[in-house]
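To illustrate the input format used throughout this study, we show a single complete record. The first block contains the structure-token representation of the backbone; no residue identities are included at this stage. The design step must infer an amino acid for every position from geometry alone.
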């Protein structure tokens, strides 16, 4: 019998990838998606400070981009109902 190959998920290659993955993991675990916008802002302020300390090789621009990605991830999905209604008519 042949030996089964074990597939491993590749590790994040750069500090930016690792920080992004950690940020998204924190967002999902903390339930910040359902929070009010002012609470999200406070949460992001604290979390980005933590990530800046943890990943001290990231530049300010990389941290700003990371925060932007996280904030966009927390925004509700916007549907295009007007476009769908006009194509049906």
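Output of the design step:
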């Amino acid at each position: 019998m042949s030996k089964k190959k074990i597939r491993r998920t590749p590790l994040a290659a750069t500090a930016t990838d690792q920080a992004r993955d950690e940020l998204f993991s924190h967002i999902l675990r903390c339930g910040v998606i359902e929070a009010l916008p002012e609470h999200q802002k406070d949460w992001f302020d604290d979390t980005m400070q933590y990530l800046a300390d943890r990943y001290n090789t990231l530049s300010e621009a990389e941290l700003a981009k990371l925060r932007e990605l996280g904030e966009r991830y927390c925004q509700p999905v916007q549907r295009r109902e007007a476009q769908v209604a006009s194509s049906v008519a």
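Structural context for interpreting the output: The first helix runs from residue 15 to 30. Helices lie at 15-30, 37-54, 60-74, 81-88.
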